[in-house]
Design a protein that fits this description.
- It is a single chain.
- The protein has no helices and 11 strands.
- By secondary structure, it is an all-beta fold.
- The protein folds into 2 domains: 74 residues, 3 Solenoid (Pectate Lyase C-like); 87 residues, E3 ubiquitin-protein ligase SopA (Pectate Lyase C-like, 3 Solenoid), CATH 2.160.20.80.
- The protein is elongated.
């Protein structure tokens, strides 16, 4: 297996020239296009993706450990197909709409200034995660563990407290009405 350490990849197109399978540690991918690429079986340790397009990328048994994504377009990814050993992310200013974190354990994950529209968090363990200034329109939280999750600065979430574990989760007004959507009631000021 190839091992690459502390290398910077700048403005490369991995749609046509695939990223070599192997282990990448402390690497930076800057303004690269991975859309529709196959990153299966590749290991990323302490790597950073900055201003990259990873839309519809295949992630079968890919490993992301302490990986940061900043200002990336990450549409339609199925993170549940990743290798779950040590899986940990940090997302800042990313577009993650239509992606899926179905039944994975991503405790303490930070989503900062992200668009998370129509994202599937069904069965996901997000204990201690932070959704800082995120738009969660249409995202699904069902049988999810949301204990100690911070939603205070995020908007447009709809969470059924009866179907999710939300003990000690943090919410703020007026967006807390997203916990009452299930009841189809009208709330006026």
């Amino acid at each position: 297996m190839t091992y690459i350490e502390e290398k910077t990849y700048d403005k490369l197109n991995f749609q046509t020239n695939s990223l070599k399978k192997g282990e990448y540690e402390n690497c930076i991918f800057n303004n690269c296009d991975f859309s529709n690429a196959d990153l299966s079986e590749i290991i990323f340790l302490d790597c950073e993706f900055i201003d990259c397009n990873l839309s519809l990328t295949k992630l079968v048994n890919s490993a992301f450990r302490d990986t940061k994504f900043k200002a990336c377009k990450i549409l339609g990814l199925h993170f549940e197909t990743c290798n779950d050993f040590g899986l940990s992310f940090f997302f800042d200013s990313c577009l993650l709409s239509n992606s899926s974190f179905f039944e994975i354990n991503i405790k303490k994950t930070v989503f900062k200034n992200c668009q998370l529209q129509e994202v599937d968090f069904t069965g996901c363990n997000l204990t201690g995660a932070n959704f800082d200034n995120c738009d969660l329109t249409g995202s699904i939280f069902n049988n999810s563990i949301l204990e100690k999750v911070d939603f205070r600065t995020s908007t447009n979430y709809s969470i059924n407290p009866e179907n999710n574990r939300i003990r000690k989760a943090k919410f703020s007004l007026p967006d807390i009405v997203g916990l009452l959507d299930k009841y189809d009631i009208v709330i006026e000021k």
